[in-house]
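Problem 12. The chain below contains 396 residues. Write out its predicted structure in token notation.
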Amino acid sequence: MQNLIKQIKGDRAIWAIVTLLAIFSFLPVYSAASNLAYHGGNTSTFSFFIKHFMHLFLGFVIMFGVHKVPYKYFRGLSIVMIPIVFVLLLITMLQGTTIDGANASRWIQIPIVGMSFQTSTLAAVVLMVYVARYLSKIKDREVKFTESILPLWAPIFLILILILPANFSTTAIVFTMIMMLSFVGGYPIKYLLLMVLTGVVALTIFILVAKAFPGVMPNRVDTWISRIENFSNGEDTEADYQIEKAKIAIATGITPLGPGKSIQKNFLPQSSSDFIFAIIIEEYGLFGGVFLLGLYLWLLLRIIVVSHKSDTIFGRLLVLAVGLPIVFQALLNMGVAVELFPVTGQTLPLISSGGTSIWMTCLSIGIILSVSAKREELKEQEDAEDNPLSILSEAI
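Solution.
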């Protein structure tokens, strides 16, 4: 056990935050899973508990393995992975899976294992690393927009176009994060505004084509529009069913019911994933919500610290590229539960049940820890060089 602990490198605070989130997740997931077990027929609540444990266990294995890889290798890996995720997204989209006529092609089945995998989450991580690589490459150089179209914006738009038909929220989040990262990375603001305008025009054209020719390609345009309209109008429709139940759960949290005693989990179809924050408030009250929020804000602080201490431009941008989306997604999930935003379908990182989300979050955390581990290694070398005893021993 001690040998394993010695193998753990990187920012200790991040390790602590991730471990606390993972441990805390078992209580609400086990509680919310009772509803899934009831509707699932022969399945038991404990089976969902074991499944969540296995997802987290594999996630921590991924995180441990990735954090041992020197982060400089992610620069080249991102180039290799771009065409791979493009093919995976294309395969996913061509499956043509629909639910009530809407595009639901988000997952592919992993051969032999028989587990499903959401390709867009992997594509998001790879794309953010790729953008960080490019921005570090052009840092302190005069940027010409025409020179960045093919190496930067072409892969971005090609991948986002493949994600968009089935998952607008992920597309919007990734595009927003890319704009933020590009701004921090020093990409000219005038070009960023041009790309935002291009993105808006492309989205508008896609919606118009989808509405004019609904049978050409399955999409979720009607779902997006109805969610936004219902959110802005405040209408009480069937589409707002989950939001209303989530608000009831949060209101009940004024006098928390206690672990496992949630009532609204029996009415929320996504009680263990998209709306697990509402169940946490209902069972643990304001303390549970503030505790979670505090952990994510602490994670944000550590991400900024690790980025600032990185020894290279690529390391700094890489940490922000994979770290900020985690915190942003967490805040978005909480915002949806309290009706600050329309329903997005985004999970609460490391808390909600679901394999792909946990694995990709752990992958991102592993990359951050790899950057911080390199900084620790350099600091140890500097301390050793400044130590008179080490200098004396070398002289002897």
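Discussion. Residues 2-378 form one domain. Students who got a different answer should revisit the alignment rule from Section 12.3.
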